[in-house]
Amino acid sequence: MNNNAQLKTIGKIILILVVLAILHAFIYSKYGSIGEALKKIFDLGEEEPDYHVLNEQAQKGFSVMLNDIDKCLKSKQAECGCYISFSSFSQTHAIKTDSKKIYLLNVKN
């Protein structure tokens, strides 16, 4: 290999390193780390749920459930039954009862 070919090869290597350094700086400034960038770019990892939306859904479902229970209690049928769906509740919600009331609790972590 002559000196001219070696200079071209070194120039290409330096260009690649400069491009990688710029790319690294951009990714770090935008995402904070390469790992976070990969998670966001390739949609890896769990996304934090929108707790506001989950709470609204749970409150609506809870209201429907209370209305159904109330209708059943007011029914004149001896063997009244009602369908209760828990699909609007997430893992962050719990239902607690005492002798007089039913409560919807938010038990996030």
The major β-sheet equals:
2 strands, antiparallel
Along the chain, the helix and strand elements come as: HHHEE
Domains counted in the coordinates: how many?
2
Average of the residue pLDDT scores: 80
Q: Approximately how much helix is present in the residues?
A: 55-70%
Describe this structure in words.
- With 109 residues, the protein is mainly alpha-helical.
- The protein has two domains: 3-41; 51-106, no CATH class.
- Helices cover 56% and strands 9% of the residues.
- The protein contains three helices and two strands.
- It has helices at residues 3-31, 34-41, 51-74; strands at 93-97, 102-106.
- The protein has a two-stranded antiparallel sheet with strand order 1-2.
- α1 packs across α2.
- The longest helix has 29 residues, at 3-31.
- The chain is rod-shaped, with a radius of gyration of 30 Å.
SSE topology sketch:
Layout (H helix, E strand, L loop, with lengths): L2 H29 L2 H8 L9 H24 L18 E5 L4 E5 L3
Antiparallel strand pairs: 1-2
Helix pairs in contact: 1-2
Compact overview of the structure:
This protein has 109 residues and is mainly α. Helix content is 56%, strand content 9%.
List its traits.
single chain; mainly alpha; 56% helix; rod-shaped; 3 helices; 109 residues; two-stranded antiparallel ribbon
